[in-house]
Design goal:
CATH topology of the largest domain: His-Me finger endonuclease fold
Strand order of the largest sheet: 1-2
Structural class: alpha+beta
Radius of gyration: 31 Å
Number of strands: 8
Number of domains: 2
CATH superfamily of the largest domain: His-Me finger endonucleases
Shape: elongated
Distance between the termini: 95 Å
CATH architecture of the largest domain: 3-Layer(aba) Sandwich
Number of helices: 6
Order of helices and strands: EEEEEEHHHHEEHH
CATH class of the largest domain: Alpha Beta
Largest sheet: 2 strands, antiparallel
Length: 174
């Protein structure tokens, strides 16, 4: 750091510096930290730096978008994201998820299907009033079915009775 001598001969660190763009003398806090620069701060104040970055982004928008897309693809880890999602939404780890699936015989907890259906992994069935209480892993069809019935066991029984009443009518008709 550059230090200035005081009238009494001691050295002190300056608390202000001029911006290289707008030439205003501003407190050091108005400049972003940079260990390689004099006084450990950038040459341009934060507002001037933001204006320059915005102007550069707009002038080279396709280059910036391509760089961001490439960085996103390079840094995205599906397994790590899935682990984070399970922990943050349901309070379980990926290992707990895998153990739950294994304890269910590798399939849906309701129908036993061996494929999750839908767009991806098994659906984590949980109580909606107690977000972190997980009941099991379901296929897409069973998850949608109990979801539409409002997770209400009585409605599920009534729906089953309804379906069974038509099954017996069909069997007697044939």
């Amino acid at each position: 750091m550059t230090q200035n001598p005081n009238p009494d001969g001691q050295t002190s660190t300056p608390t202000t510096k001029p911006c290289a763009t707008c030439k205003e003398i501003l407190p050091l806090e108005s400049f972003s930290p940079s260990p390689r620069m004099a006084l450990g701060r950038h040459s341009y104040c934060k507002p001037c730096n933001a204006a320059w970055r915005r102007k550069d982004y707009l002038a080279n928008i396709e280059v910036h978008k391509a760089r961001n897309r490439a960085s996103s693809r390079r840094n995205y880890d599906l397994e790590r994201h899935r682990g984070w999602y399970l922990k943050s939404k349901y309070g379980i780890t990926r290992d707990q998820y895998d153990a739950m699936l294994e304890s269910q015989g590798g399939g849906c907890a309701i129908c036993g299907a061996n494929a999750p259906g839908g767009k991806g992994d098994w659906h984590v069935d949980h109580e909606h009033n107690a977000k972190k209480r997980v009941r099991g892993l379901l296929c897409a069809g069973c998850n949608v079915g109990i979801g539409h019935l409002g997770d209400d066991p009585e409605r599920l029984v009534l729906a089953a009775q309804y379906l069974l009443s038509f099954t017996s009518v069909l069997e007697t008709a044939s």
